């Protein structure tokens, strides 16, 4: 039995070039299917099944039956840092016992190549979102962009995008925007380090580039929420807001600690937020001809609202400018916790305009770099076994590196 469970060549770390249009979790599921059909992982899977059987015999019948419902044994996989669906590039994958080493890749530096288009903001800060604002862009030149980049180099503070993984009072930030509910407390900016930030290409609007705006427009409620979020805590000196003068306290640590801190501070605002949400809902229910429940009518009357018509957010004027907007290509090296989407968005703000990410590639993470030791996604297509030798080589190399520590 000891021979079965010892570390094998099929455990370790690999890196794949994630394609656009897939989540990181979908990539792992695709790899599990491919690996599960391969002779290369046959012994690995047999060992996993033997170990699972050994564990089952030590568990109660109830727990065993629940576990067995999960299906056949698959190669255990995990990733060392997610990529957005629209993004491509280096995705670190832990295989088998290699998943235990993934945490070390969360703290390493990463390099990104990003493309941002000027003139619009979206609720997600990238092309997958809805347009929340349109601003002038005719004044933007390569020299103008160069002039603001130094504000973003070094140790800076970022406010997470509204469409991020952060939770507040049990809601993700973007759910507040969708429901038209004001965020109950200020989401303070968080520290990160931009080791390098350079322009690799600038495409003026008259250069004939083919980049385009997303087509979905946000509702007035969503636009108002995005504007309010953008203005949270913004002082007169935006450079100071980026570089210093912000005491983050517990917000400078993990998302879990950040969430707990915000929950404590939000208690006093809970009743006020709930009432405002109810008023917003009432407006749209009345607009759609939906009858207000009797209990809500009574509560509204007790608050003196029975004769008041809810006021929707005022429509924001849609800015229009002739000619195509300019586009900037950026290359950057960043620390853990950096939102590249926020960098693009904030550069647009610094230029008196707006900007949205339209392409993103993670070109390096730790020692894994595109064009060197990252496996092309095309090599994993059905019927193509080109990945086998590459995976074998990567796992062996990662095992050697692990043995040195």
UniProtKB/TrEMBL annotation:
It comes from Orbilia oligospora (Nematode-trapping fungus). One of its GO terms (molecular function) is tRNA pseudouridine(55) synthase activity. InterPro entries: PsdUridine_synth_cat_dom_sf, PsdUridine_synth_N, tRNA_psdUridine_synth_TruB. Residues 74-204 form the Pseudouridine synthase II N-terminal domain. Belongs to the pseudouridine synthase TruB family. The keyword Isomerase applies. GO terms for cellular component: nucleus. It comes from the Eukaryota. GO terms for biological process: mRNA pseudouridine synthesis; tRNA modification. Gene3D superfamilies: Pseudouridine synthase. Residues 51-79, 285-322 are annotated as: Disordered. This is tRNA pseudouridine(55) synthase. Keywords: Isomerase, tRNA processing. The keyword tRNA processing applies. Its EC number is 5.4.99.25. Residues 60-69 have a biased composition (Basic residues).
């Amino acid at each position: 039995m000891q021979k079965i469970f010892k570390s094998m060549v099929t455990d370790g770390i690999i890196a794949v070039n994630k394609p656009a249009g897939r989540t990181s979790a979908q990539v792992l599921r695709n790899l599990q299917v491919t690996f599960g059909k391969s002779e290369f992982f046959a012994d690995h899977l047999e060992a996993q099944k033997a170990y699972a059987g050994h564990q089952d015999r030590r568990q109660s019948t109830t727990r065993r039956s629940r576990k067995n419902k999960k299906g056949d044994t698959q190669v255990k996989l995990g990733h060392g840092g997610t990529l957005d669906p629209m993004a491509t590039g280096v995705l670190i994958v832990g295989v088998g016992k290699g998943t235990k080493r993934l945490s070390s890749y969360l703290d390493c530096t990463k390099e990104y190549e990003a493309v941002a288009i000027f003139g619009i903001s979206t609720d997600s800060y990238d092309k997958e979102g809805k347009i929340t604002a349109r601003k002038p862009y005719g004044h933007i030149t390569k020299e103008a962009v160069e002039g603001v980049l130094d504000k973003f180099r070094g140790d800076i503070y970022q406010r997470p995008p509204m469409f991020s993984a952060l939770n507040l009072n049990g809601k993700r930030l973007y759910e507040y925007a969708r429901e038209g509910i004001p965020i109950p407390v200020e989401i303070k900016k968080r520290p990160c380090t931009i080791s390098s930030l350079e322009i690799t290409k600038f495409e003026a609007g008259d250069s004939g580039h083919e980049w385009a705006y997303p087509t979905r427009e946000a509702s007035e409620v969503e636009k108002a929420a995005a504007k309010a979020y953008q203005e949270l805590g913004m002082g007169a000196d935006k450079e100071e807001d980026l570089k210093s003068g912000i005491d983050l306290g517990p917000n400078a640590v993990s998302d879990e600690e950040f969430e707990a801190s915000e929950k404590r501070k939000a208690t006093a605002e809970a009743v006020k937020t709930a009432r405002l949400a109810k008023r917003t809902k009432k407006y749209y229910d009345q607009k759609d001809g939906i009858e207000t429940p009797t209990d809500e009518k009574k509560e509204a009357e007790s608050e003196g609202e029975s004769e008041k018509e809810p006021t929707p957010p005022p429509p924001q004027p849609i800015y229009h400018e002739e000619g195509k907007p300019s586009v900037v290509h950026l290359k950057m090296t960043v620390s853990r916790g950096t939102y590249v989407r926020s960098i693009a968005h904030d550069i647009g703000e610094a230029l008196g305009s707006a900007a949205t990410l339209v392409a993103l590639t993670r070109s390096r993470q730790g020692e894994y770099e595109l064009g060197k030791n990252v496996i092309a996604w095309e090599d994993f297509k059905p019927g193509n076994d080109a990945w086998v030798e590459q995976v074998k080589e990567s796992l062996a190399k990662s095992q050697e590196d692990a043995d040195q520590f």
